[in-house]
Design brief:
Length: about 500
């Protein structure tokens, strides 16, 4: 009986992806000895399996077309959900935003709607060329539904990405009049850029500040990077160092806790250094550069859209968008001379099983399950079990530090009579978010309780007359305690300096 055999054709794209994976491993485990959470291991394994499966079971043009139709349909469903959230019929997935679809915030939601809208525009154009006006009319109705919610999402990154992708849509045609239309759209983008910046100026300034700090991270490890998941582990410490060196920076008072680079290229440069970003950009360019067949043209437009969106957001940290990038990259013509021999299906099954066992072993051996660590740290700290809480807070500070985690860790060190480490944590927390009063108050309280009166007085006066972001009743309590302390430091009781225990982890 003849065995079913699959022919795997290795292309230059596969070689580039393999080189990136090998560098991912080298940067993470050889040069940096990174400890990666279970979540990250499973995430990376999932994307790897998706790529291998897509390359081996490379679908026909008809199957790819059905995939695009499915995405366009899902975009319409997401738009309907968004309208339901707008009219308060369906609950939003974010406390600060009313429209998120099935996503956690409007950014990825707008990105997915833009992908669906781009596909709908592509199909509508071909229906127009073919003079299939009934189908064109139906697509226009669906496009208006998706487009209205796409605008309502207020995702400026998605707006810019769609505008540039549609511009390239016209550039792909041979006739000059279409290219002129693409050029006009690019000019429109240039003139609308100041408006898009002013639309959410504070948010835009925040991203510019984050990018500025990212340059410090890149300079610290320009060649090897920090390894996988190192951005979330290193960024807040880099922000603290930067604001300590530049206390008068215009964004210092507005700095917040953050784990995203809001630019995939900067994140890759921070995590994998110069070789990593060169491979990453080359993979994008090679994926975009291809023959303009019917389906390939749409694939190219979608990759251009996602590449532009990645300039302003965290594409590969949202699973649906990451999977789509992987699949679109794997959907390419096997026109390379590098070819592997055909091998039986059982070999493929064995390879996938080995990959699964390796991933499972990695997760079982890892003690860094991020969500579990944060939850346990919160519980132990709230119960005032500072000895055990310290161990989990140290792991949390390693994986994804925030000012809240550093405050709780410093407070745990203080109760364990390790004043040096406690002060160190409080100082870092203050430098992370200089515009927040609570870290400053924790450091002030530490000085007051340890009888470092002069430092407590100086910091207390600075807090009272400083320009801090409002933090509700706790901020008012803190200032009240400081005023009582400064009124007469010789007779004041230090017990009143303790704020109620809060669950901030």
């Amino acid at each position: 009986m003849r065995q079913y055999r699959i022919k795997y054709v290795c292309t230059l794209y596969d070689i580039l992806v393999l080189c990136f994976i090998l560098w991912w491993i080298s940067s993470s485990f050889i040069f940096n000895s990174r400890v990666i959470s279970n979540e990250q291991l499973i995430y990376s394994y999932t994307l790897s399996v998706v790529y291998v499966a897509t390359r081996i079971f490379r679908s026909s043009i008809s199957v790819q077309r059905r995939l695009y139709i499915c995405i366009a349909f899902l975009g319409s469903i997401e738009a309907i959900i968004g309208w339901g959230q707008y009219w308060n019929i369906i609950e939003s997935n974010h406390p600060l935003f009313s429209i998120t679809g099935t996503f956690t915030n409007p950014g990825p939601y707008g990105a997915f709607l833009g992908i669906a809208l781009l596909i709908q525009i592509h199909f509508a154009w071909h229906k127009y060329i073919a003079k299939q006006y009934m189908s064109l009319f139906m697509l226009l109705i669906v496009g208006l539904l998706t487009g209205s919610m796409f605008i309502a999402s207020f995702s400026r990154a998605a707006w810019v990405a769609l505008l540039i992708a549609v511009s390239f849509f016209f550039f792909l045609f041979q006739k000059k009049r279409y290219r002129y239309a693409g050029l006009l759209l690019l000019i429109l983008f240039l003139f609308s850029s100041p408006f898009l910046y002013q639309l959410k100026k504070q948010s835009a300034d925040g991203r510019l500040f984050i990018w500025r700090v990212c340059t410090e991270l890149i300079q610290s490890k320009p060649y090897t990077g920090g390894g996988a998941s190192s951005f979330a582990a290193r960024y807040m410490y880099a922000q603290a160092d930067f604001l300590e060196k530049h206390p008068n920076h215009e964004y210092a008072a507005k700095a917040t806790n953050n784990i995203y680079a809001f630019n995939e290229y900067l994140r890759i440069a921070c995590e994998y250094g110069l070789p990593g970003i060169l491979l990453y950009v080359t993979i994008w360019l090679h994926g975009i550069y291809c023959k303009a067949t019917y389906c390939d043209r749409l694939r190219k437009l979608l990759l251009i859209y996602l590449a532009v969106f990645s300039l302003f957001s965290y594409t590969f940290q949202v699973l649906p968008l990451a999977v789509l990038c992987i699949v679109l990259g794997a959907f390419q013509n096997n026109n390379s001379k590098f070819t592997f021999y055909a091998f039986p299906m059982r070999y493929l099954v064995i390879m996938l099983l080995l990959m699964t066992i390796i991933a499972w072993s990695g997760t079982r051996s890892s003690q860094y399950e991020k969500k579990e660590i944060l939850f346990t740290a919160k519980q132990l700290y709230t119960q005032q079990n500072y000895a055990d809480a310290k161990e989990y807070l140290e792991k949390a500070a390693y994986l994804s530090p925030t000012s809240e985690i550093l405050m709780d860790l410093g407070n745990s060190y203080f109760h364990l009579q390790n004043n040096a480490k406690a002060e160190h944590c409080f100082r870092i927390a203050c430098n992370m978010v200089p515009g927040r009063i609570l870290p400053q108050y924790y450091l002030f309280r530490f000085y007051a309780i340890t009888m470092r009166n002069q430092e407590a007085i100086t910091l207390g006066q600075s807090i009272l007359f400083g320009d801090y972001q409002l933090e509700g009743s706790i901020a008012m309590q803190a200032k009240t305690h400081i005023k009582r302390y400064l009124s007469d430091i010789r007779t004041v009781s230090y017990t009143h300096l303790t704020l109620p225990t809060t669950s901030r982890v």
